[in-house]
Amino acid sequence: MHRRGVGAGAIARRKLTEAKYKERGTVLAEDQLAQMSRQLETFRTHLQAFASRHKQEIRRSPEFRLHFQHMCAAIGVDPLASGKGFWAELLGVGDFYYELGVQIIEVCLALRHRNGGLITLEELQQQVLKGRGKFAQDVSADDLLRAIRKLKVLGSGFGIIPVGGTVLVQSVPAELSMDHTVLLQLAEKKGFVTVSEIRDSLNWETERAKQALEHLLKEGMAWLDAQAPAEPQFWLPALFSELHAQDGAAGP
Amino acid sequence: MDRFSWTTGLLELGETLVVQQRGVRLSDGEEKVKFDSGVLLLSTHRLIWRDQKNHECCIAVPLSQIVFIEEQAAGIGKSAKIVVHLHPASSNKEPGPFQSSKYSYIKLSFKEHGQIEFYRRLSEEITQRRWESMPTGQAMQVNKDSQAGRIRAVGIVGIERKLEEKRKETDKNISEAFEDLSKLMEKAKEMVELSKSIANKIKEKQGDITEDETIRFKSYLLSMGIANPVTRETYGSGTEYHMQLAKQLAGILQTPLEEQGGIMSLTEVYCLVNRARGLELLSPEDLVNACKMLEPLKLPLRLRIFDSGVMVIELQSHNEEEMVAAALETVSEKGSLTADEFAKLVGMSVLLAKERLLLAEKMGHLCRDDSVEGLRFYPNLFLTQS
């Protein structure tokens, strides 16, 4: 005969029920993890099927890669997080970007003594493509930017600085404040900047302009032309290649 | 009709198509010829006719050969026509279907209409004479032997068609690829949802989840590239994979580290390891997560992060502070050094040379002179000579 109510028996029974609920809780997570494991396997199969048909497309087409990246971002997936991930393993996306990372590091290292660790995205792209050789796949600006964003985590100062018409890639751990970035943007048009220009366009006092310029000089990102006619000019070697390109366009 | 030459029908560089019309019959003067039913194409440079049944049969005449044109209205049982009066064929004309003709004009019969528009366009082209200002690429060198020329033309038309088919196929492939990608992403999205739901369960249970389950969950997230929703830490350092990787790195990096003075930046390590692997490369995050495991796993290397944020791998036996003493000696010998100069002297990367000098400064052994000429380090005489 069952009798609910107080008593040692009831307490013991309650404790047992509670314990069972707790256990059930654990079992619930178990179930879900098992479910996830199964679904992962299924997903892997789908990805494999996709890869066998379209893997070439990823390596061959910058447009398709871009689209792929956008879709991943939209659902909250980072296909480049790990070389061990399904995406890298089965689609080969990883190798494409990680190798690009190596090439970017090497180009930046090689040119650092000249430009202080700042380079335009265009020049970087040119140099990387040169290094890859005639038969390598095409590499778009978006590809480079994604590879660079991944390199940030290595701590050696990789960063991206938008400057008007283009983007500068930083590859040294130098601290660049807002002031410095603004100067870079100002210099982008002509490749150089003067103290008067800074005072006129940005409304800074001379002292502030000089400090910011000096920092860029010290980091090797700016060169001083003290012989310039009107007043000293501060040139950015990173922008030299861009100037040449402009000259070319303006031809005879 | 003897002004016509065999052609591939491919447009030359600099030549543009203006208009085309099906169902056109050619006549040699008043006489019917076998070119009964074809597509007539007008380009900036030529008049081209291609047989509708036999695409390899294709002939053309340069617009420069045209003296003037006339319209002939349609009648009962008769199509509208354009009469094209031509200069005599030039002596170096490419071989064509007719060696000679007693007429100096041809007729274009528009059996499926289109005569009015074609006439208008042809007049325009003759007036504008665009072929004079748009030099085309090298005209095809066809053999004197018209038969051989015809066979060659056939081959190239075939190739052109194959290219067109390939283009269509590539387009089809790409749109298939996009479609398949969408479907794949739907499934990936389900995985993301599931992982969120599990993460919520874990949050609710507040620590009732076992270590084992955590590790499993992290590795699932790693496979999919999903950020850990519970801790927001990047991609599970502490997965089995990263632990194994850490052990591998310890093996791979021992010798290079010894050769490089016991210390290497993480970017150097990244390049070294991936160049060696060739395939199945490590992501930057993989490398960092593995390096974070070096010390916990008591391996002979360790990860160190300088104040500047620069990350390096050191041999456990390496003592950067001792190296600083050596650096001080070097700087004293030379009086003063910049990071570049020091790097060259000692055979280090500029990045690490600078870090060492900065550390020496932090420890009080060196002073800096920060000028526009660069950052120069001097022995700290305040300390030594006080």
From TrEMBL, chain B:
Residues 160-187 form a coiled coil. Gene3D superfamilies: 6.10.140.260, Pleckstrin-homology domain (PH domain)/Phosphotyrosine-binding domain (PTB) (2.30.29.30), Winged helix-like DNA-binding domain superfamily/Winged helix DNA-binding domain (1.10.10.10). Keywords: Coiled coil, Cytoplasm, Endosome, Protein transport, Transport. One of its GO terms (molecular function) is ubiquitin binding. The keyword Ion transport does not apply. One of its GO terms (cellular component) is ESCRT II complex. SUPFAM superfamilies: PH domain-like, Winged helix' DNA-binding domain. It comes from the Eukaryota. Residues 1-138 form the GLUE N-terminal domain. GO terms for biological process: protein transport to vacuole involved in ubiquitin-dependent protein catabolic process via the multivesicular body sorting pathway. Its main location: cytoplasm. Signal peptide: none annotated. It is found in: Cytoplasm; Endosome. InterPro entries: GLUE_dom (IPR021648), PH-like_dom_sf (IPR011993), Snf8/Vps36 (IPR040608), Vps36 (IPR037855), WH-like_DNA-bd_sf (IPR036388), WH_DNA-bd_sf (IPR036390). Pfam families: EAP30 (PF04157), Vps36_ESCRT-II (PF11605). Component of the ESCRT-II complex (endosomal sorting complex required for transport II), which is required for multivesicular body (MVB) formation and sorting of endosomal cargo proteins into MVBs. Belongs to the VPS36 family. Component of the endosomal sorting complex required for transport II (ESCRT-II). This is Vacuolar protein-sorting-associated protein 36. It comes from Lonchura striata. The gene is VPS36.
